[in-house]
Amino acid sequence: MKITFLGSGGGRFSAISQRRMTGGFRIDNVGGKNYHVDPGPGALIRTYQFGFDPRNLSGVFVSHAHTDHYNDAEILIESMTRGMTRYNGTIFGSTSVLEGYERWGPCISSYHQSKSKTVVLKPGVVNEVDNIKIKGTKTEHGDPAGIGFQIDYNGFKLSYTSDTGYFDELADYHEGADILIASVLRPGNKSINGHMCSRNFIDLINKVKPKVAVMTHLGLKMISNNPVVEAKKISKQTGVKTIAAFDGLSFNVNYNNPKKFRLISLKDVESSMHSTSHELFNSGRRNSYQTSFKNKEFDELSILKRD
């Protein structure tokens, strides 16, 4: 299993400013299957930027009906289904994401749901897909139907809290997690409704006792406060190795010893798909310009001379 963060930012202001990317994260090679979790703004571009192919997805997870979690879901579904020409993959989502709940959602159109299996995740309910057990976990957030989840692959458990405030039963839903990934918006004790701060994450880790903890979905205050220092404090207080996710963070999971891993910082691969290479971009623009003329796509061409 390989986990890659195509963004570590979260919250509306972090998403708007893009001080941290908001592409969610990928879980690759879970029994040969690849999943994209909470593909927020920029998820498709970041997929190519860090050297992945969205067409090899087996599933897309969307935890709740907030833009920083669902924005790029439909284009990834189109990638997974080869432009909606093949029936492929699974879309996992909350009731609000897939069906709509009160004033939230649906976030994925019936058209985009038509070429994949859909699974509505609900707290405490276990679904088995692709020989993987997936349990919905409760959240307390602005979207009342939002969910987190826990993946159980041959007894190895990876948990994701998604956006949630801390509540007494939260640890019960993530019990037994080997790796615990949590949305931790703010540092210290500065929690706000529907989100956890570092203090909440410490309490959660102490109850769940994972092998490794990862905090992501970092808000502007957390980013400004130095998340790495915050993660070190959490590690010291809990005795659990805690990582502050960063854009392009990747690591392979050792099922037998999850604490034994090496963090990799992925670099921009200069994919022509997202035009980070100026040479490729200029070439593509020139070719498009010439092709337009060849196919007579311009109605009128005017050449003006300045006196």
Topology of helices and strands:
Layout: E1 2-7, H1 12-17, E2 22-30, E3 33-37, H2 43-49, E4 59-62, H3 67-70, H4 73-80, E5 90-93, H5 95-98, H6 110-113, E6 117-120, E7 126-129, E8 132-138, E9 147-153, E10 156-160, H7 170-173, E11 179-186, E12 196-197, H8 198-208, E13 212-216, H9 220-224, H10 227-238, E14 241-244, E15 249-252, E16 264-265, H11 278-294
Helix pairs in contact: 8-10
How would you concisely characterize the structure shown here?
This protein has helices at residues 12-17, 43-49, 67-70, 73-80, 95-98, 110-113, 170-173, 198-208, 220-224, 227-238, 278-294; strands at residues 2-7, 22-30, 33-37, 59-62, 90-93, 117-120, 126-129, 132-138, 147-153, 156-160, 179-186, 196-197, 212-216, 241-244, 249-252, 264-265. It has 307 residues and is an alpha/beta fold. The strands form two sheets. Strands 6-5-4-3-2-1-15-16 form an eight-stranded mixed β-sheet.
